[in-house]
Give the backbone structure.
Amino acid sequence: MNQMINRQWWVEKWLELLDSYRFKKRLERARNYAREGNVLNIEFKQNHLISEVQGSESQPYRVTLSLEAFSDEDWGYVIETMSEKALLAAQLLVGEMPSEIEQVFIKNGLSLFPFNLTDVKSRCTCPDKANPCKHIGAVYYQLADRFSEDPFIIFQLRGRSKEQILEALRICRGLKLSGKEPKPEMLGKIKSLPKRKAKANKTSVPLSIDSFWEYNEPLDSSLVVITPPTDNKNILDVLGAIPLPYNDSQAVMQYLQQVYNAVPIKVMEIALTENN
């Protein structure tokens, strides 16, 4: 697992579960397993994680891990609360876990993160009866890396994928823009994504340079999807180091990095505000 000096708070929250485990030697072996690439794969089936971890035997061990999934009704109220804050939705879209996200769940009588290891259901096919064994522990550490890349994984473990949450937020926002009040019961039932209808064959019309950029159909603002760059890079990464003395260059780059990281969040906040 990659060493992270400045871990995101949600990653730290997950790793606190392991830090509470008293068998530190076992954790050290689990950490080494993760670093050495023994976690061969991780996949999700609903709120269940399934992984293969290479141990001392030729055949890898199978690890399963899950959290208690929230009910449809619970998710309906959570989605409604999320939709009330445009900045929160914008931060999620750019891959950031808002610090206020826990309050969204607490407000609805839920806890997004497990309180302790007993809240995590895990099993391994290895002969070790201890739980977590080093194979399960390795998956925990590997998940920390995954969380740093995609905070929506914790939602997946609670029963909703990233696509399902964003689709429910889109529908909720669309209803509010049209003057309708979304019902939590309805929002909680949004699980499948809309299927695109096949376009009917139309008679081809000769292209005209004068009307090429014209679009005569009304735009539905609720259908607009705003997403950040997939490579998480900004113009500073492209331009490289600033030609200044090292300490000055680092100070300026650090400041500009904060600015460039804040800009897309602010843009999405404005775009997701009802008045824009």
User: Anything to note?
Assistant: The chain has a mean pLDDT of 79. The beta strands are 39-45, 48-53, 61-66, 121-124.
